[in-house]
Every structure is written in C-alpha cells, then in structure tokens.
Design a protein that fits this description.
Elements (H helix, E strand, L loop, with lengths): L1 E4 L18 E8 L2 E4 L26 H12 L3 E4 L5 H10 L4 E4 L16 H11 L4 E7 L8 H9 L2 E12 L2 H5 L12 E2 L2 H10 L2 E9 L6 E8 L12 H24 L4 E4 L3 H10 L6 E4 L30 E4 L6 H11 L4 E4 L9
Parallel strand pairs: 4-5, 4-6, 6-7, 11-12, 11-13, 13-14
Antiparallel strand pairs: 1-2, 2-3, 3-8, 7-10, 9-10
C-alpha cells in the first residue's frame, strides 16, 4: 500500500501548493516480520528529516516513576547509557532511587558521545563507537526511537554489545495495535520507519538474543506504549516471525474506508470546517483526505505557528479563540487522541453550536 505525503507538521511562511504526484511515497510493507516503510535507497537513512535536524518530541511520562522503580529493583544500575535526550527523564528518576555513578548520552548535540542526529549515520557511527568504547553499562535506555530506524535489529544488537554482564536494556515504542483495531491509518507517520505491535517487538528482541523479562502496554488512548525490560539470553531462543500479510491487507482496506468516510463527512458539511492543532496529525489527516477545496481553517495556540500555512491550505493558521464567532461549525480535533476530552470540553465552553469530531476515529456514514 502506498500513500502520498509530504513532511507533515511543517508550516510555511506563505501558501505552498503541491499536486499529489509531487509528494513523497510512503509504502507500507511486511518485511522480516515487521510492518515498515519500504526503503527506496540503501544510502538514505531517513528521507523525511534534514541531515542536521534534531527532531524533538515530547513523549508521555506519567508511567516513568513506576518504570524507574522496576528498573532500580532489577539490577540497581550504577552506570546508565541514555540513547537520546528522551531517555534522561527516566535516567534521572532512577538516580533518585538508586546510587548511580555515571549517566552518558549516546546521541546529543552538546553532551552526546555522538553529536549528530541518530536517524542519519547513526548506525554506522554507533558501530564504530562500539569498537572504541571501553565502558559497558548496567542499563541502557531507548524510548521511542528504534521505530525511527529501518533496521531496528541493528540498533538493538549494537546496544546489547555495550551491556555489562547481567546488564539490561529498557525499550519503549509506540504500539500500533489499537490503530489497526480501530481502523485508523494515522499511525503511518512518515518519521516512523517501523510500526510495532507487542508481538513484532517481542520477536525483534528475541532475534537479537535478548529475553523480555517484563513487557507491559501502558496507556488507554489509541497509541499506548509497549514498555519492555530485556536481558541477554544465554540459551538459544526460538522465535516466530509474526505473519503480517493479513494485517497489511486489513490496514489497506481500513485506510480506504477511513478516507472515504471522512471525505463524505466533509462534503456533507455546509458550514465552516475547523481543524484544531497544526501539528503532524492534523496535517497528515488533511493530506490523506485531500479535500482542500472545502472551507477549511486551522487554529492553534502556538504563536509560532499562527500566521503561517500548512501545505495546500489557502488560509493561514489562526488563534484558537477564532472559533468563538463561527455558527454551527464542524470542528475536528487534530490533537493527539489522549487529549481529545480536554479539547472537546474547551471547544464546548466557547462555542455551543459546534459539532465536534475526532480524527482518530472513523465517522459513521449517518453522522
């Protein structure tokens, strides 16, 4: 399955229009028991990110106190390697519970053992570093990053070689299973090159000679996290690659259904259509639905986005309070599913005439 998409979440200082054929291809394939993007060039680590760009995102952290307590009990780590800035929050929590001698960061623009973004040259440089680095670690943390690599087994194997005897690796990735169950294609973010489920992550870990000693699904929204504590296995592990052929076909069918249902919903709307949030979820939704001829408006609290444009939209992004003056608008929450209830409550408080929908659901034909 191939969709056409272009750098979602990017805002422009002027209106930018691109025809569908001019956008980049995102092709979903089943390869080595993983759902992933097809790689069109062996020399490109990630076509979606500028080589010197550090793409910064904030992941949910409500569960990290519990994870820190688990990790502190498993092997009371004295030395910790954080893969990126995302992992320092958990490392700091562990340090509060346990006496830690040192915490290193593998990839960081200022303090990292490697100073370039991990999506590029990352695998190659880490391989070189593996040969030079004398230190080993009791604990290695990698949260929400192996899905950014087309070959996550390579990354996990490199990190495994940096473990001390009885060392552990904590791996956390977004879970796509609920997206699939809810027939929603928005998990296909172009910056994620692999789309994990708990089965495919477990298989990946086992193929690297690791054993998952604790695996949990954390979060009640459409995109929970798979939280896994791994140790080196000293016996041969037999593992089965998940059969994802039927899953891939299911995703293709559900994507077509999602696009058709939303197009029909927007076509039936006679008033203003307002998208809340100018981030990559809203932009990906708009690019998939491709209904730019409708009277669309995007609102966002972020002042740095206001006055700019999302791809193919004729009107600039405006402040959230602009929805006050609209009569009977159709308002679509483009913020993450976990924030929908708060967004819905806020919209109702300032515009009681609005019809509110969530882009993380597929609308019914009668809506």
């Amino acid at each position: 399955m191939t969709i056409r998409i272009k750098d979602t979440g990017t805002t422009y200082n002027k209106r930018i229009t691109l025809e569908r054929y001019m956008m980049d291809k995102l092709t979903l394939v089943n390869e080595e028991g993983l759902l992933k993007q097809q790689t069109y060039s062996k020399n490109r680590y990630n076509i979606w990110t500028n080589e010197n760009e550090w793409y910064v995102t904030n992941e949910p952290e409500e569960h990290l106190d519990n994870i820190a307590m688990k990790l502190a009990k498993v092997n009371r780590p004295k030395s910790i390697l954080a893969f990126t800035y995302k992992d320092m929050s958990l490392a700091d929590r562990i340090e509060e519970l346990n006496e830690v001698d040192e915490i290193d960061i593998l990839f960081d623009s200022e303090k990292g053992l490697i100073r370039t973004p991990p999506e590029y040259k990352g695998t190659k440089k880490a391989n070189g570093l593996k040969d030079r680095l004398q230190k080993k670690y009791d604990l290695i943390i990698i949260r929400h990053y192996i899905e950014h690599f087309s070959k996550p087994r390579n990354i996990i194997s490199i990190l495994k070689s940096m473990l001390k005897t009885n060392g552990i690796i904590y791996i956390e990735v977004p879970d796509t299973q609920r997206f699939i169950e809810k027939e929603n294609p928005l998990f296909m973010w172009e910056k994620h090159l692999v789309y994990f489920t708990s089965d495919s992550l477990k298989s990946t870990i086992q193929s690297c000679g690791l054993q998952a000693i604790d695996m949990d699904i954390v979060g009640n929204d459409i995109e929970p996290a798979i939280c896994t504590i791994c140790k080196v296995s000293h016996i041969e592990i037999k593992f089965d690659k998940p059969n994802l052929i039927s899953t891939k076909k299911e995703i293709e069918k559900n994507t077509a259904k999602y696009i058709k249902s939303w197009r029909e919903t927007l076509m039936r709307s006679e008033g203003d259509i307002i998208i809340v949030g100018a981030g990559h979820n809203s932009d990906r939704f708009l690019q998939l639905i491709d209904q730019y001829d409708k009277n669309l408006c995007v609102v966002d609290d972020n002042k740095e986005r206001q006055g700019k444009f999302l791809l193919n939209l004729k009107d600039e992004i405006v402040e959230f309070d602009k929805i006050k003056n609209k009569t009977n608008p159709l308002i679509l929450s483009g913020c993450h599913d976990r924030n929908f209830e708060a967004i819905e409550k806020r919209i109702k408080s300032i515009n009681s005439t609005a019809t509110i929908k969530n882009i993380f659901t597929t609308p019914n034909s009668n809506d």
